[in-house]
Amino acid sequence: MNFHNTIRPILVIFLLFGQFPLYGVLTCKPLRWHFRWCSLQTVLSLGLIHVGLFLCFVEYDRLKAIGVNADNLIGPLFYLDVIIIMLLLLRVAYRWPTVVPKWEQIESLEVMQYNARQQNARSCRRIRAIALLLMVLGFAEHMLSIGKTVNARVDEARTCHWNYSNLPEYYALRTYGFFFRRVPYNFPSFIFLEYANTALTMAWTVQDVLLIMISDSIAGYFKRINSRIQFYTTVQVVAREKFWSEIHSDYVMVCELLEHVMSICSPLLVVSCGTNLYLICYQLFHLVDRTDDFIIVTVFTYFSLFFIILRTFLTMHYCSAVHEVARKPLKLFRRVPTSNWCCELERFYSFIRKSSIAINAMGLFRLTKKTMLTMLGAVITYELVMLHFAQTTANQGIVRACSPEQFLFQPKMQITTN
Predict the structure, then answer these.
(1) Euclidean distance between CA atoms 320 and 325, whole angstroms
(2) How far is CA 275 from CA 79, 96, 358, in A?
(3) What GO molecular function annotation could you give as one example from this UniProt entry (predicted)?
(4) Which of 130, 354, 366, 403 gives 358 a disulfide partner, CB atoms 3.0 to 4.6 angstroms apart?
């Protein structure tokens, strides 16, 4: 099973949330996958982008009225971030048909047939398991977020002595009042707004899952070349020049595939790293500054932090693994006896030693194991900055209790006494 057939079920899940709108994904022939502006998938994706723009404007307009603090800044930033992610996913989907032939060419190489059945089955299970795990956890996190918001609305009604007979209607009017003030409340509109919010939230997980699947596949190609090299470093090769020339050529083709894919996906990687860094800091800030006593708020905070750290670690791990396996031949070449050394092997060795083969983020940085440690240091630094920002804006962005204002993200409430 090739890469595209492996990820096809995952891409179908993406389409359910309006992400990565490739036309023809349901077919088993990747060469038939293409991008259509007039397809249902693209229309849905563009519709969600416009909904996100509208909600971003709504949150920005409210913050202008009450002020900004470290807590409520997440409102407009969330929608701005997911809009950028969806636009980048749209760009990747638009250019993806140029990648498919190169991927098919790599998978048809003779070196990729080395122990192919066992390797393909293992890779297929691993990619699908990780992708499904992250998608399920991402959806579960959003459901906990909705549960937390519902709990806050119910507690607000109890505190303010507001009576309601229909919980979904009350929740909709308090959360999406900006919409239902102009349109009479109806359940289908409420469901669509909830779906749009869910789909926009899932964009965070979709971008990381896509990067993980791409990185794992390319790292797998390098591993197959390494397995071939490892076998022939301990045996006598009759046609040494020809063998190492072919291996070198195959290695260069995988490098070219990596370069071509990252020319399309590297902006997505930059946004992913920035988003995950901010979200980790934001959830850590909530642990430090947490004042809620509700169990569901505590569960959501810890679960969300765990999920973001897990998603970030897996993304960084699989992206940095490409660099590790691409450099491994340098260690394997040390086992080659002097009698088996030749000019083509020398050229191959020099190419790897002088090349910087890694997942590249628009030339800003390369993802290696050291990058993970750098990001850990950045989390500590920006967490201190966020705590300082929270202290300087402690008296801003506070909404009085029982306020008629509706917010998608629960702001800080202050009880006022007359």
Answers:
(1) 9
(2) 12, 23, 21
(3) sweet taste receptor activity
(4) 366
What is the helix, strand, coil percentage profile of the chain, to 5? 75, 5, 20
Round to whole Å and give the CA distance between 130 and 122: 12
Q: Which amino acid is at 301?
A: T
- Evaluate whether 43 touches 52 at the Cβ level (below 8 Å): no
State the DSSP string of 241-284: HHHHHHHHHHHHHHHHHHHHHHHHHHHHHHHHHHHHHHHHHHHH
41-58 per-position pLDDT tens digit = 999 999 999 999 998 988
Give the pLDDT of residue 418: 38
- CA distances in angstroms from 411 to 73, 277, 401, listed in the order given: 10, 22, 10
8 Å CB contact between 172 and 180: yes
| CA–CA dist 206, 333 (Å, integer) | 39
Least confident span in 81-90, 208-217, 346-355, 369-378: 369-378
- pLDDT at 396 > cutoff 90: no
